[in-house]
UniProtKB/TrEMBL annotation:
PANTHER family assigned to the protein according to its UniProt record, in alphabetical order: MEMBRANE PROTEIN, MEMBRANE PROTEIN-RELATED
InterPro entries recorded: DUF1707_SHOCT-like (IPR012551)
Protein name: DUF1707 domain-containing protein
Chain segments annotated as coiled-coil in the UniProt record: none
Region annotation (Disordered) ranges: 1-22
Domain DUF1707 positions: 15-67
Biased composition (Basic and acidic residues): 8-22
Domain of life: Bacteria
Pfam family, one: DUF1707
Length: 222
């Protein structure tokens, strides 16, 4: 009786990555962009590649030229992936009367964001935000204002559970996305909006002047 042939150890770079692996690399890329090491165009390209990665060999080059993340070796990627997970708040409550709410740039997203806004609009830009876990819940109660959500590739927004009175939900985020692109994070919108709309769109590519001047860093949630 012949014994089974031992399986040859696979190259670690050929191992499949998980959603958490992709999220960790995406977070590292957003931090690098916030430090000015990547332009917005470069960030968009690398995020798209990260969310479409299948193996560690696909992810490693995305961090190779960033200081502190190694020289492109798989060990550098492993160091990044072994970093402690982002500690986000469970719930953040925001209340505004006659004013708008804007979260953009580099910010840490809570697991649940409660928004009570009267007479103003809300902008939630997830392009360079850091998320923890696979889902973010946004519960809105708005009067006379609209909710705008900007999401990078790999993010999906479910706005079917929000009650609309006098407005609509327009999702433009998946317009140019590949049909088989993996979803790495979901945003679920609930609550009620009166006299306003929900607009979901991908990030706008910066023009030359905007790339030269850069964008100011966003603020952290209080």
């Amino acid at each position: 009786m012949s014994l089974p042939t031992p399986m040859e150890p696979r190259d670690p770079k050929e191992m499949r990555v998980s959603h958490e692996d992709r999220d960790r690399v995406a977070d590292a890329l957003r931090v690098a962009a916030g430090d000015g090491r990547l332009t917005m165009d470069e960030l968009d390209e690398r995020l798209e590649a990260a969310f479409g990665a299948r193996t560690y060999a696909d992810l490693a080059p995305l961090l190779g030229d960033l200081p502190g993340l190694g020289s492109g070796a798989l060990a550098a990627l492993g160091q990044s992936l072994s970093a402690p997970p982002v500690q986000s708040k469970d719930v953040v409550h925001v209340k505004r009367v006659g004013g708008s709410v804007r979260y953009e740039g580099v910010w840490i997203v809570p697991k649940r964001l409660d928004l009570d806004v009267r007479g103003g609009s809300v902008l939630l830009d997830f392009t360079r935000a850091t998320v923890a876990g696979g889902t973010t819940e946004v519960n809105v109660h708005m009067r006379g204002g609209s909710l705008r959500i900007v999401v990078p590739p790999g993010y999906a927004v479910d706005g079917n559970e929000v009650s609309m009175h006098g407005g609509s939900v327009r999702d433009r985020s998946a317009k140019d996305a590949p049909p088989d692109a993996p979803i790495v994070h979901r945003i679920i919108v609930t609550g009620e909006i009166v006299g306003g709309s929900v607009v979901i769109r991908p990030p706008r590519r910066p023009g030359r002047l905007r790339r030269m001047l850069g964008r100011s860093a966003g603020h952290a949630l209080e």
